[in-house]
Amino acid sequence: MTCSEILDMVYEEPDNMPLFNQIRIWLHTIFCPNCAQEIERYQVSRAILQNDFFPISPGLEESIMAKIDTLEEEEEIKDAYAVPGGLSTRGWVIAGLIIFVSLATSFFGFDFRHLTNESGISFLLPMGITIGIVLTTYGALFIGSHLKELSERFGL
C-alpha cells in the first residue's frame, strides 16, 4: 500500500479500525519512518484536542448567537430596500454592448456623411465628446452598482 492510503485509513477511522487494517498500518510504519512520524503527530494532536486543550469560554455562545441575529436582521433590511427587477450583470453588459454598437454605427448613416460635408470637422469633435461622455457615464454607473461583485471577483 502507498503512504497516502495508509494515512487515509488512519485519518478516516482511528477508533473503529478493523484488526487487519491495524496490522497493515503497523507493518507499514515499521518500514516507513515518515508515516510513523506523521501518525504519531496525528495521535498526539488528537489526544490534545480530546482532553479539553481549549477551555470553554463563558458567554461565547450568547455572543455568537447575538452576532448571527444581527447579521440576519441586516440581511432582512437589505432585502427590504432591494430594487425589484433590477438589471443583472448580464443585462448591464448586453445594454452596454447595444449602446456601444449604436454609437459606433452612427457614423455609417446616410445623413452623417452629408452632415459632415456641410459642417466640416467641427462636427466630429462634439460627436466624439458626446460618445465619450455616454460611455464613461455608463461604465461609472455599472461599476458603481456592481462594486461588491466586482471586488469579490477580482479580489480587490
Keyphrases for this structure?
single chain, mainly alpha, 156 residues
What can you tell me about this protein's structure?
It contains eight helices and no strands. By secondary structure, the chain is mainly alpha-helical. It folds into two domains: 3-50, no CATH class; 85-154. The protein is elongated, with a radius of gyration of 33 Å. The two termini are 45 Å apart. The model has no long low-confidence stretch (mean pLDDT 80).
Morphology call: elongated
Q: Output mean pLDDT.
A: 80
CA radius of gyration is 33 Å
- The proportion of strand residues reads under 5%
Structural class: mainly alpha
Strand and helix map with partners:
Layout: H1 3-12, H2 19-31, H3 33-50, H4 60-81, H5 89-105, H6 110-119, H7 124-145, H8 147-154
Helix pairs in contact: 1-2, 1-3, 2-3, 5-7
Summarize the structure.
By secondary structure, the chain is an all-alpha fold. The protein is built from 8 helices and no strands. It has helices spanning 3-12, 19-31, 33-50, 60-81, 89-105, 110-119, 124-145, 147-154.
